[in-house]
Amino acid sequence: MKKVTPNILKIEVTTRCNANCIFCSHRFLNKKHLKDMPFDTVKMLIDQTNWRWKPEIQLSGFGEPTLYPDLVKAVRYCHKKGLKSSFNTNGFLLTRDLMDQLIKAGLSQFRFAIDGYSKKTYESLRRGLNFETVLYNALDAWGLCRKSKTRMIILNVICKENENEFILLKDFWSRHSHKFEVNQEMPFVQGRVEQFYSDICDHFWTQMQVRVNGDVVICCLDFPPNYTKLGNVYETPLLEIYNSPSFNKLRLNFKKSIYPDVCYRYCVRK
Ligand SMILES: C[S@@+](CC[C@H](N)C(=O)[O-])C[C@H]1O[C@@H](n2cnc3c(N)ncnc32)[C@H](O)[C@@H]1O
Ligand code: SF4
Ligand code: SF4
What predicted TM-score, i.e. pTM, was given to this entire model? Predict the structure, then answer.
């Protein structure tokens, strides 16, 4: 079988977070799951890429990457290795100084999550964060990105609380970013929504998610306490895990519309 190499390698550098967003399952993480990945591990993962396999490195998972003390170092290391880097962020801690350092380190993309057009809606969704601070940081980032090679993406989780503001949000941020991306709310919080999504997904072929403890899982939605561990990066090289019999079996099954539990939980209609 031909070796499969993901285009995006997602590394969960931290599971710590400074917010408590109502649609996010981060709140269900047990305290023992809150930690940072040692920088040596990030380095070890990046060192496994080579001239034939140059994935974009997304320094994200369940947590807020701007809390990771070695974020700038990680971005710089990706750049040194000729790899694109990005991370999803709530943007609250992205000060001018940190943004300057990240841009200088060679960050390819800021991926800012902004889900409300008004303070009321934003703060009711992104609990613990301050709307004005995030707005200020995002506009500041846009100003810096326009003068550099770093791209600015705005992410929006659309849900019933913000759907009335969607047009305003899209109109404003489409003019103040390189791209406005919409994520439909996933039913992370049981009972919040009854919506399920298409079963068309290419994650098994294009993306790889490494959790903070080194476990490789099915995708970013596969998180503690019940997740499928497909290997651990401290024991097995990345591409060996990605091409292991268990990963290949998932791929074959996926093509036959036989899905792992996590897909039924979030994306696939039974
Ligand atoms: C889990 S967060 C981690 C990164 C960072 N803390 C942030 O908020 O962007 C990664 C992405 O998942 C999105 N997300 C969180 N809960 C979601 C949900 N229930 N449905 C869809 N996307 C969600 C967030 O908006 C964010 O863009
Ligand atoms: S969406 Fe991001 S900022 Fe909000 S709780 Fe989840 S990890 Fe934290
Ligand atoms: S849960 Fe399954 S279908 Fe949904 S994103 Fe993950 S791999 Fe794809």
Answer: 0.94
